[in-house]
Design goal:
Structural class: alpha/beta
Number of helices: 6
Oligomer: single chain
Helix content: 25-40%
Radius of gyration: 21 Å
Distance between the termini: 17 Å
Number of strands: 8
Shape: globular
Length: 203
């Protein structure tokens, strides 16, 4: 899911989502049941700065793309949709597979539904970076975010976990400029090419 930066477009999208949720709920609720309210979780944008020393055999942009993908998957894990065949291969009972409302894009495993991440932990994100294939060392690493409680001013996250305010969730998108990102290979310092990085991220 992509959050639109345009306030009016985001409001229209939120209204559409709420209407669809209400329609699905009303078509599957029991008699005497009703929903009190529907809340749309708002995004908190994260930004990364890092300097890495990489193995000479790897492509810097590919490494950065994998790091962004892994971190994004850690903080906002995508829900996987399964086909009927895939779940039957896992020996799932038919009644269990079709339990719940009708889904248009496949079936969702309950185990894949995770609670919203309520804190940013730089140490856990740094661990993801340091364990990525091709990374020899992490020379610099900094996480910052747009603080929704302070007019969305960008603030750095220190070494302690930062609590995410209720009603918000962190998201990480690819950078629009290479400032704060660099890698060293064979003693030579490079800035990643963002176009190439985006192409690698897509795969």
């Amino acid at each position: 899911y992509q959050y639109d930066d345009d306030t009016e477009k985001r409001k229209n999208e939120e209204d559409r989502v709420v209407q669809e949720i209400e329609a699905v709920y009303k078509s599957h609720r029991n008699l005497g049941e009703d929903v009190c309210s529907i809340s749309i979780i708002q995004p908190v944008k994260l930004f990364l700065k890092m300097g890495l020393t990489l193995d000479e055999k790897v492509i810097g942009e590919e490494v950065f793309a994998r790091i962004y993908y892994q971190i994004n998957d850690r903080i906002t894990h995508d829900v996987k949709f399964y086909s009927l065949w895939e779940l039957q291969e896992q020996k799932k009972e038919i009644d269990t597979i079709f339990e719940g409302p009708h889904l248009e894009n496949g079936f969702i495993e309950s185990a894949d539904l995770k609670e919203r991440l309520n804190e940013i932990n730089p140490s856990s994100l740094l661990k993801i970076v340091s364990q990525e294939d091709g990374v020899i060392s992490v020379n610099t690493f900094e996480v910052s975010f747009e603080d929704p409680t302070d007019q969305y001013h960008t603030k750095s996250v220190d070494n302690q976990p930062k609590t995410i305010p209720k009603g918000f969730t962190p998201i990480l998108t690819l950078p629009t400029q290479a400032k704060g990102l660099h890698f060293i290979t064979n003693g030579v310092k490079f800035s990643p090419d963002l176009t190439s990085m985006s192409e690698h991220y897509a795969y």
